[in-house]
Amino acid sequence: MNFKKILPVATLGLALISLSACTSNKDTNHTAKKKELTTLQSKSEPKQDPQVRLKFNDIKTATAENNFKGGTSLEQIKELYGEPTSHTTKPAGDVTLDVYTWEVDGVTISAQLFENSTIARAISNFAFERKQTVTKKIYDKKLPNDLTFTEVTEILGQPDVMSEAVSSDGERLQALWSSNLKGEDNTRQIELIFKNGKLSEKSQKGLE
């Protein structure tokens, strides 16, 4: 079975992460969207429930080694978020994926399943409420390549938004941090990409 095309199809939503958080100013938000930059959650908006984001960690993706079986099922995701808001299908190579979306308190959760096994997941439009503790020095000195995602979260905390997908070519996870970064610029962010479980690419904006 050809899963070569699953990864590019499943990760189309990754680019949308750059528009995933909210801003502290409506005019800033409008400008930031045009520039495709991440902004911070508005203090004037209702506080987001962190459990909406943390439940996302319970959605697991299958692996190619296990023939893409063993990922979180639709029934298990429903236990976390209830009935999906929408359902569509899309081709991926010579197979068809079920694409489900949930809208929960302004947060968007999506999952792509093959034969009721999650092979891609994404969450957007969320920002934690937390102190600005991550500095450019931490970014420069404590995030070398080959760290695992778990090791990174021990340094930075959980990312505000993220997306993950698997294919025959391997696993790719993209994560964005915006709410705990030291800096004055509302567009500050750290973006990290993990390939096959190891940090492989990183970038930042606006850190001090």
Main-sheet strand order equals 1-2-3-4-5-6-7-8
Helix and strand run:
HHHHEEEEHHEEEE
The profile of the biggest β sheet is:
8 strands, antiparallel
The amount of helix comes to 10-25%
Name the overall outline.
globular
Separation, N- and C-terminal Cα atoms? 48 Å
Give the total of beta strands.
8
- Structural class comes to alpha+beta
Whole-number tally of structural domains = 1
Mean pLDDT: 84
Q: DSSP strand (E) fraction?
A: 25-35%
CATH architecture: 2-Layer Sandwich
Uncertain residue segments:
4-44
| CATH top-level class | Alpha Beta
Brief synopsis:
The chain has helices spanning 6-10, 26-35, 50-54, 74-81, 136-142, 149-156, and strands at residues 86-92, 95-104, 107-114, 117-124, 161-167, 170-177, 189-195, 198-205. With 208 residues, it is an alpha+beta fold.
